[in-house]
Amino acid sequence: MRLLTPGPVALADPIRLSLSQEMIYHRGPEIKALIGNIVPRLKKDFNADHVFLVTGSGTAGIEMAFACLTKPNDKSLVIANGTFGDKLASCSKVYCSTQVEKQPLGKGWSLERAKDAIDRSGAQIFAMVYNETSTGVLNDARAICSYAKSKGMVTILDAVSGWGAAPLDIKEFRVDFAATGSQKAMGAAPGMGIVAFTEEAMKRAESITARSFYLDMKKYKKDMENSQTPYTPAVSAIFSIKAALDYIDSRGGWEAHRARHGAAAEKSRKFVESMGYKVFAEPGFYSPTITGFILENADEIRKQLREKYQLVTARDFGELQGKFFRICHIGNFEDKDLEYAFDAIRKVLGK
Q: Is the dihedral of CA 218, 78, 328, 6 positive or negative?
């Protein structure tokens, strides 16, 4: 089977083989060396003061932010334009009063569109999704988070499918806390949330009683300073993160990795248009990892692609369920994988 989904992604051989290593003790010198190798590299790319490895999905990282950076009487503003924006809002609602502002599906969030909501919200917390996987929209997180931060808000960014493919310097973006997952654009195995944040965010967490036992940032800080985690981590997933970082470095580093995603996105948009379809995302907000288009019989097409061509593609969500098709170009894909997918899709659609 060929996996062309938004995550977990197909693993390049060196990353896949890293999972077969002998298990190590999670309190021994080997894990300290492993985490000590990984975290500084992640900090550098995020330009973060702190990076924690949290066993779980990217959602665990997002929940850590709300559990540790909000107070019960706080109000949050969440802007959404798809399934994952809605999920972000649902997470926020567990921890504080939440105002949700939405754009229509396929439309992107710009500062011009978000500014009024930020100005009138009166919220202490601001949260948004960087890359809306469900529709293939990349929101302008840099401008929006910078503005929200200038208004005194704590900024939380769901960067689960954005980081690694799109630029993300959290200090330039003025993001207090960003979360992603190992199985997305980095191209590692699933099982590890990665959170990157500023010293200001850490100080806020230290001044607040965490509303989670497992996700308490204060506990993580104490152990991560010693290159360990407070609880048993998914060690094999950490093996794969190091292998993924090494693999990215071997192919030109993060700049080349992001450029490869951008080139694949452009190629995918041209492919969609060559078949007579319209890219669903609004121009100017194209995702580097997902290209989607309306396809009324999408479920049947996905079934045929799997059965006839052993090509696994991603399902759709919500209002678009059953009538939306996503081409995923994220992680360890090669040009030959895209070409194979394009050829198979053409044949199934008779295009």
A: positive
User: Is 168 exposed, middle or buried, given 0-12, 13-18 or 19+ CB atoms closer than 10 A?
Assistant: buried
3-state secondary structure of 148: helix
What tens-digit pLDDT sequence spans the chain (351 residues)? 899 999 999 999 999 999 999 999 999 999 999 999 999 999 999 999 999 999 999 999 999 999 999 999 999 999 999 999 999 999 999 999 999 999 999 999 999 999 999 999 999 999 999 999 999 999 999 999 999 999 999 999 999 999 999 999 999 999 999 999 999 999 999 999 999 999 999 999 999 999 999 999 999 999 999 999 999 999 999 999 999 999 999 999 999 999 999 999 999 999 999 999 999 999 999 999 999 999 989 999 999 999 999 999 998 888 899 999 999 999 999 999 999 999 999 999 998
Q: Which domains does the chain have, with CATH numbers?
A: 13-249 (3.40.640.10), 253-349 (3.90.1150.10)
